[in-house]
Amino acid sequence: MLQDTIGRVHNYLRISLTDHCNFRCTYCMPQEEMEWMPQSHLMSKEEIIQLAEIFVKLGISKIRLTGGEPLVRREFDWILDQLSKFPVELTLTTNGILIDKHIPALKKAGVRSVNVSLDTLNREKFKKLTRRDQFDQVWNNILLLLKEGFRVKVNAVALHGLIEEEICDFVQLTEKLPLHMRFIEFMPFQGNLWESKKVITAAQMLDIVKEKFEVEKLQDKKHDTAKKYQVPGFKGTFAFITTMSEHFCGSCNRLRLTADGRIKNCLFGKEEIDLLGALRNGEPIEPLIHQSVTRKHAALGGQFDPDYLKTIPEEIENRSMIKIGG
Ligand code: SAM
Ligand code: SF4
Fold it and tell me: In what order do the strands lie in the sheet with 262-264?
């Protein structure tokens, strides 16, 4: 069992398959020239399975595949298929652009739920945010996933000044579509030009929604990162991920494995342990995983004040989001 010093049990692993991406989201990629990881530094497909197997033996029961963009990894279907042999719930977070090519593989692997990122319903804004003109493909793929019977959560990064005019449109979508909208407060990472004034909090967003809709609070589960709501009678739900205004570190059950095979015990932590190097040297991996879990900070990677207004982005020591995977 992967229990830390304050009793949190870790059973959820997010594996980043690559730092590459076919989008260029401004809030995710560093502004300066991105240095991609050399191929030889990435976990091979076999190494991913070897490491995943060790995690599963230690109690991991849910694995999320992420990136960069996980679907740009050519071996995605093979990796998914191999992971599906473990007793785990499998899922992924994707920008959605390539998902139509992978529906059979997702079904075969028993994937039931997919998170798709979509920050705007406006084509021009989409182009500006992702630096790609592919809104229609993403939207059609969301509809395809629903048609194919997947549970679909849509992740929108909430940027102050941009989300306000669209938040009710997103909620409106949940009337006819069984979508689960999730508005994520903008988080600071290396090079993403984060400023506290660009954050819009869940409370502020909820006020905007309440001006237009009657809103019911839904019950959240213990490890949920999202605070869920529904407009009575609507098919879908909406939720806020309140990392900045009200962190949920006390019930965190998540570990991360980066594409270059390092374990991160926290999205915001700077400490990493190189599991891939150890694997390649034939060294035991389990003690390193335990070491990482034991060293986990109580909150926010030990780096930030829970009051996000006090966060100084220049002092953050971490990877960019694209190199962690969310
Ligand atoms: N490429 C995939 C995608 O876009 O869904 C997976 C990787 S992406 C890094 C994972 C999630 O992190 C996405 O939902 C993305 O919107 C979110 N994200 C990226 N940068 C963020 C930031 N600075 N604050 C909050 N969420 C962020
Ligand atoms: Fe790529 Fe996802 Fe980051 Fe956008 S949020 S740049 S799609 S990894």
Answer: 216-217, 226-230, 237-241, 180-185, 151-158, 113-117, 89-94, 62-66, 12-16, 254-257, 262-264, 272-274
Question: Does 67 contact ligand 1 (Cβ within 6 A)?
Answer: yes
Question: What pLDDT score was predicted for residue 165?
Answer: 94
- Considering only CA atoms, which residue is closest to atom 8 of ligand 2? 68
The atom of ligand 2 lying closest to the CA of 94 is 2
Question: Does residue 7 belong to any structural domain of this protein?
Answer: no
pLDDT digits (tens, 9 = 90+) for 79-98: 999 999 999 999 999 999 99
In a domain, 281, yes or no: yes
The tally of domains found in the chain comes to 1
Ligand 1 contacts CB of residue 325 (under 6 A): yes
Beta strands in 4-68 (DSSP E): 12-16, 62-66
- Distance (Å) from CA 321 to ligand 1 centroid: 7
Does 6 map to a domain?
no
In a domain, 231, yes or no: yes
Rounded to whole angstroms, the Cα distance separating 33 from 42 reads 20
Ligand 1 within 6 A of 276 CB? no
Whichever domain contains 108, its CATH number is 3.20.20.70
Domain range spanning residue 132?
12-324
Distance, CA 271 to ligand 2 centroid (Å)? 23
Task: Tell me the best of 16, 22, 23 to mutate to test the pocket of ligand 2, counting ligand atoms within 8 Å of each CB and taking the most.
Answer: 23
pLDDT given for residue 301 in this prediction: 82
Whether this prediction's pTM lies above 0.85 is answered by yes
The low-confidence residues of the chain, meaning pLDDT below 50, are: none
